[in-house]
Amino acid sequence: MSYTTSLLSKKTRIIALFITVLSFSTFKSFAYEPNEDSLKKAAAVATTETEKKEGFNAGKLITEHIGDAHEWHLWGEGEHAVAIPLPVIIYNKKTGLDIFMSSKLEDGEVYKGYKLVENKIVEAEEGLVGVTDEVENVATGNTNNIIDLSITKNVTSLLISAFLLLWIFLSVAKTYKNRVGQAPKGLQSFVEPLVIFVRDDVAKTSIGPKYEKFMPYLLTVFFFIFINNLMGLVPLFPGGANLTGNIAVCAVLACFTLLIIFANSNAHYWRHIFAMPGVPVWVLIILTPIELLGVVLRPFVLMIRLFANITAGHIIALAFFSLIFIFGEMSTGAGFGVAVLSVAFTVFMGFLELLVAFLQAYVFTLLSAMYFGAAIEEGHHAHEEHHAHEGAHSAAQIDMV
Among 159, 217, 249, 361, which one is least packed by beta carbons within 10 Å? Predict the structure, then answer.
């Protein structure tokens, strides 16, 4: 328990900085051509009429649920929708900084020269001719006039999870101090097995004797991914955000791992990458670029694995759920008939995603630990000298006896 207490105290010192830096990964900059307000309104009306004719759009439903947004949708659709507005923070190179709530942009309204189009804030100014040009420029974003630093749904979810993580570990650390030598109790009994699991089954086996140096990061990234995966499965506020399914968040986590590898790698690690011992020179011409590419691909693989698995789970569950409405438009009987199977598959996917929530946190942490172990691994000569020194020391002790 004393080790866990010290480990948690280390963790609480870095978790705030880690989450704060990570939160900036969800801030995105968007730039768009100036657009004519009247043409935008005409485009919005035309789009609404088209959607009514087309009926239920499963693709749009899934995209909106797994994507980011400037408001936190609670329930309802259309005029009856209930949502929590979030702060909009925009720096415009022409007019400067603007801060207001996203409720000002509801239903296609224009506020301070801005408008919300497909969850993207655009300028509602004169300058474009034709609805086609407007839609094309909104989709591509050809200029850099707007820098969007808004507190979006993903950013809010990240701040909530950061607060939750701090509360959990500060509470557990306090419990350890007040219950020295006693059996775990309450939240402590939930956290301690996971800490020991990461220490014994991930860090020690993958890194070796120097594992303690990397434990604060490994514990932070494990619990961060695990808790946000679980929160993404809860359909009600403050859950429901697809934070770990955001490619920017996954990229920042992977970059943290890469930076730690670079900061702790030894000469033996780089020697095997640039000039692997025992390999002919002509083979190194081919092998060295491959090894260098592998160094870059490691964080990329971490990023894609986490992003793809979490996002795919949400998409599959929403796709099964959408079948109810798709068949319901054909006939009421077909809708009720498919509903039974759709709900059953959706519930099954929900339980499967609970497993994936833990599994992806474990895999990301395990692979990071393996990369750290490879970066600090000593060469064969160092091992032989170490064993020879131990053998000489043991022989000296035997002679003394």
Answer: 159
pTM (2 d.p.): 0.75
DSSP 293-338: HHHHHHHHHHHHHHHHHHHHHHHHHHHHHHHHHHHHHH-HHHHHHH
Residues 42, 131 contacting (CB under 8 angstroms) = yes
Task: Please determine, for residue 368, whether its predicted confidence score (pLDDT) is greater than 50.
Answer: yes
pLDDT classification of 44: cutoffs 50, 70, 90: very low
How does DSSP classify residue 377? P
pLDDT grade, residue 201 (50/70/90)?
Answer: very high
Question: Which residue type, as a one-letter code, is found at position 339?
Answer: A
Same domain, 108 and 239: no
Number of H helices, E strands in the chain: 13, 7
Same domain, 160 and 126: no
The number of distinct structural domains making up the chain is 2
Q: How many residues does the chain have?
A: 401
Same domain, 350 and 215: yes
Q: Which residues pair with 250 in a beta bridge?
A: none
Which of 169, 254, 167, 158 lies closest to 216 in space, CA to CA?
Answer: 169
Cα–Cα distances (Å) from 244 to 68, 131, 218, 249, 325, in that order, read: 12, 36, 16, 6, 28
**Residue 2, domain member (yes or no):** no
